[in-house]
C-alpha cells in the first residue's frame, strides 16, 4: 500500500511536470504557479519522505540483514538445533518476530533506539565498502541486559526461576551480564559443524 502511494505521487509529479514543460504559459496564471509549486517542490518532497520511510522499515527485516554475504553465517545460527543457543531458541520458538529477528535483539530499547540501530547499520555499510570486512565481527559496544529485559522482565519464566530472582538487581543494573550464563550466541566459527533444525525455512 505504501509503495503504491509513493508510485502514485511520483506519477502525478511526472504528469504535472510534463504538462508544465509542454505548456509553460500555464504558469502565467495564479493557478498555474500553484501547479508548478506542487509539481516541482511539494510532490517530490512527499515522495522522498514516503520512500525513505518505506526503506527504513524494510531495513528492519531479517531478510535485509541477511542479504549481506558477511551476515550469512549469523543467519544460519538461527537454525542451530540446540535450545541453549540464544538466537536459535528465540527464533525457532517465536519469542521474537521472525521477520524482524536481527532488529528485535540488536536495537537499543531507548528513546532513540531505532535511530541508533539504523545509524550503526549505515556505519556497517561504510566499513564494508571502504575498509573491508573485519576478520572478526563484533558489536560496537557490549550487549546490554536492557535489550534482553525489554521482553523478559516481568515474564514468569524469568521472574520465578533461579538464579534470575536471586540476581534480579544485578541483572537490572547491568552489574552482571545476561550473557555470563546465556553465553551461546551466534558461534559463527563453528556454524558448519553444528546440527541444524529442519523446521520451516531451514
Could you please describe the fold and organization of this structure?
By secondary structure, the protein is an all-alpha fold. It has two domains: 2-58; 62-190, Multiheme cytochrome fold. The protein has ten helices and no strands. Helix 1 runs antiparallel to helix 2 (30-58).
Which secondary structure elements does this structure contain, and how are they paired or packed?
Elements: H1 2-22, H2 30-58, H3 62-65, H4 72-76, H5 86-92, H6 101-105, H7 113-130, H8 145-152, H9 156-159, H10 168-172
Helix pairs in contact: 1-2
- Profile the largest sheet: none
Basic shape: elongated
| Relative helix content | 40-55%
Number of domains: 2
Reported CATH architecture of the largest domain? Orthogonal Bundle
Q: Low-confidence parts, pLDDT < 50 over ≥5 residues?
A: none
Assembly state here?
single chain
Amino acid at each position: 500500500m505504501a509503495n503504491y502511494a509513493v508510485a502514485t505521487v511520483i506519477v502525478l509529479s511526472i504528469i504535472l511536470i510534463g504538462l508544465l514543460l509542454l505548456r509553460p504559459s500555464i504558469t502565467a496564471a495564479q493557478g498555474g504557479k500553484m501547479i508548478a509549486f506542487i509539481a516541482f517542490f511539494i510532490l517530490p518532497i512527499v515522495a522522498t519522505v514516503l520512500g525513505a520511510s518505506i526503506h527504513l522499515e524494510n531495513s528492519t527485516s531479517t531478510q535485509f540483514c541477511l542479504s549481506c554475504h558477511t551476515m550469512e553465517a549469523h543467519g544460519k545460527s538461527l537454525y542451530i538445533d540446540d535450545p541453549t543457543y540464544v538466537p536459535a531458541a528465540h527464533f525457532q520458538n517465536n519469542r521474537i518476530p521472525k521477520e524482524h529477528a536481527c532488529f528485535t535483539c540488536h536495537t537499543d530499547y531507548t528513546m532513540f533506539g531505532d535511530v541508533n540501530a539504523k545509524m550503526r547499520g549505515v556505519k556497517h555499510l561504510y566499513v564494508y565498502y571502504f575498509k573491508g570486512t573485519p576478520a572478526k565481527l563484533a558489536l560496537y559496544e557490549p550487549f546490554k541486559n536492557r535489550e534482553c529485559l525489554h521482553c523478559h522482565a516481568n515474564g514468569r519464566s524469568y521472574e520465578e526461576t533461579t538464579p534470575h530472582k536471586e540476581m534480579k538487581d544485578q541483572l537490572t543494573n547491568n552489574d552482571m551480564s545476561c550473557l555470563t550464563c546465556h553465553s551461546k550466541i551466534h558461534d559463527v566459527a563453528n556454524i558448519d559443524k553444528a546440527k541444524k533444525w529442519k523446521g520451516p525455512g531451514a
